[in-house]
C-alpha cells in the first residue's frame, strides 16, 4: 500500500524513538499516567472529556504529539469497557439502537483514522474549537431542540432513527477517529437533543457508540501508527477504573445541573483550544 508523504514524514521517523530522548517510562511516569487514566475515564464516562486529562498527560510523559494522539485513542478502550459495564442498567432495551448507531460511528471512526494517516493535522484542528462549542450550546439548549426533534420523530414514525441524527453520528465518528477531544460532548448533545429519554440513558448510549468509533480507529493505529504500548496500557488501566465509577455517579446526580456543567466544561475547552491555535 502506498503511504502518503505526511505519513512517511510524521509517523515513520518516530517508530524507533517514540519518546523524546528514546527514554522508557519510569515508575513515576507510569503512576502519573494511571492516575490521569482514572481522571480521564471518570470525566469521559460522565462528560465526554477524557482527552482533557489523558492527552496532556501523554505529552508530559515525553511523547511527541502524533504519538500521543494515536496512543490516547488506543488507551480509551479501557474507558469504553468500564463505562459500558457500569451502564448496564441504562443500556437495558437499547441493544438494537446502540448497534445501529454504533455501526455508523464505526464507519466514521474508520474514515477519521484514514484521514489522520493521510492528511496534515492542521487541516482539521482549526475547526475543532467550533465543533466543541457547538455541542456545548446544543446541550444548553436541549429542551427546545428536543421538543422540535420529538415532533419530527412522531411524524417520521416511532422506532426510526431520524436522518439528521444518523448524519450527526457518522460525522462525530469521523471526528472521534481523527482527533476526538470532547467527541463525547458532541455525541451526548446529538443524542440528548433527539430524544426525550433521561440524560443518563443518552450518556450510556453515548459511551457505547463512541467506544465503537474509538475501537476501529485504535485497531488501525495498532498496525499503522507508532503507538506507545506501555503508556497506552497505563492509561487504559486507570481509565477502566475511572469509567466504571462514572455511570454510577451520573445516575445519582441531578440532571439539569449536570447537563449545564458538562456544557460549560465543553465551552471552556473550546476557548482553550481556540486560544492555543491563535
Give a quick account of the main beta sheet: strands, pairing sense, barrel closure: none
Q: Catalogue the unreliable spans.
A: 1-22
The proportion of residues forming helix, as a percent range, comes to over 70%
Give the integer mean of the pLDDT values.
79
The end-to-end span amounts to: 36 Å
Order of helices and strands: HHHHHHHHHHHHHH
Beta-strand content: under 5%
Q: Which secondary-structure class do the elements indicate? A: mainly alpha
Put simply, the count of helices is 14
User: How many domains would you count in the coordinates?
Assistant: 1
User: Total strand count, please?
Assistant: 0
What is the alpha-carbon Rg in Å?
Answer: 18 Å
Describe this entry's structure for a reader.
- This protein is mainly α and 278 residues long.
- 78% of the residues lie in helices and 0% in strands.
- The protein is globular and about 50 Å long.
Task: Describe the structure using short key phrases.
14 helices; mainly alpha; 278 residues; Probable membrane transporter protein; membrane; transmembrane helix; 0% strand; transport; globular
Provide a concise account of the structure shown.
With 278 residues, the chain is an all-alpha fold.
List the helices and strands and how they pair.
Layout: H1 5-10, H2 27-47, H3 51-60, H4 65-86, H5 88-91, H6 95-118, H7 122-125, H8 128-140, H9 142-156, H10 163-178, H11 183-193, H12 199-224, H13 229-250, H14 255-277
Helix pairs in contact: 2-3, 2-4, 2-13, 3-4, 4-12, 4-13, 6-10, 6-12, 8-11, 8-14, 10-11, 10-12, 11-12
